[in-house]
Amino acid sequence: MNYLQKGILTLMATLLFTYVMEAQRIPRIQYIETYKELAIKNMHKYGIPASITLAQACLESGDGNSRLAREGNNHFGIKCHNWDGKRIYQDDDEKNECFRKYNIAEDSFRDHSEFLRFRDRYKFLFDLDPQDYKGWAYGLKKAGYATNPSYPQLLIKIIEDFQLYKYDNIAGFTPPPPSQLEQEREYLIPSGTSLYQISLSRKILEKNGVPYVISAEGESWESLASDFKLFKRELQRFNDAERGSSLIPGSIVYLEGKKRRAEPMLTSHVVDAGETTLELSQRYAIKLKHLRKMNKLKAGDEPVPGTILKLR
Fold first, then answer.
1. What pLDDT was estimated at residue 18?
2. Which CATH architecture has domain 9-175?
3. Which of 3, 48, 175, 191 is paired with 181 by a 20 to 30 Å CA distance?
4. Has domain 268-310 been given CATH number 3.30.70.120?
5. 198-215 per-position pLDDT tens digit
6. Buried b / exposed e across 124-147, counting CB within 10 Å, b at 16+?
7. Where exactly does CATH 1.10.530.10 map onto the chain?
C-alpha cells in the first residue's frame, strides 16, 4: 500500500469517526428536555433559578457532549476539592487536573447547587428576584464563577433563545435566602430567668435557639461570666474556648451550650480559605465536637477550601 492509499484510508477513517460522533451528539433542545425537571427540583430545594442551572449546564458540558459529562456525569466541570469519590482526569488550567466523577448526573447537579447555595461569595445572588436571570448571570461573573468576560451574555443568550425563563415560574416552595436565615435575631428571654434583668441594659441575640452577646472592648471571659452569673470555665466550654484563651472584641459569646446541629435550612457550608471549624461552630451555633464528628474530622484537622461541610 503506497502513501496515497494510506492517506486516503486515514482521511476516510477520520471522516467516518467525525460522522459517527456528530450522529451521536446530543442536540441542545434534547439536553434541556432531559434535565429541565431536575433543574426545577433543585430550584425549589436550593433557590437557584432553573434557567440559570440549565444555561450553565449547557455551556459547561457542551450540552452533555463533553468528555466529563459523558464519562464522568460531571456537567459543571467540578474539580475534586478534597473529593473521596471516583475521579476523572483532564487537561484544564493545568495538565491532567482532577475532576469529580459521579455515578449519576443528578449528583453533579446537586453539587453545583450546593456550591452556589452554601458558599459565602455567592450569597448576595439569593437576595435577587428569583426571576431575575440577567441579575444572576452578571452576579455569577461578579462573584468570580467564570473568567470569560462574555460569560453573562452567553448564559442570557441560551436562556432567551430557548425560553428557559419559563421554568423559573413553576410554583413550589423555595427556601429563604441565606442572608435571611442568618440575619441578626433578638433573643426572646423567658420571664423569670437571670438573663431578663441584664437584657434591660444589653442586647441579647440568638442563633439556632442559643442566646449570645457580642463581646465589647475591655471585656474578658471573667467579666462576662460574672455579668451572667456563670463560671468562667463554663462560659468557655459553651464556646469551645481553650483554657487561658483571650476574648477578642467583637466575638460571638454563647450564654448556653450550642446545639448538635445547625438550624433546619442551614444544611451545609462550603469552606473558604482561612476558615476553621471553630469559627464555623461559632457561626452556626454547633458544638465543635459534633461538627467534627459529622464531617469525620479529627481534633486539630481543618478542612481544605472547597470542602462541603455538613451542618446537619
1. 40
2. Orthogonal Bundle (1.10)
3. 191
4. no
5. 655 788 999 999 999 999
6. ebbebebebbbbbbbbbbebebbe
7. 9-175
Name the residue with cell 471553630: 278
Buried b (16+ CB within 10 A) or exposed e, 47-74: bbbbbbbbbbbbbbbbbbebebbeebbb
Which residues in the chain are classed under CATH 3.10.350.10? 268-310
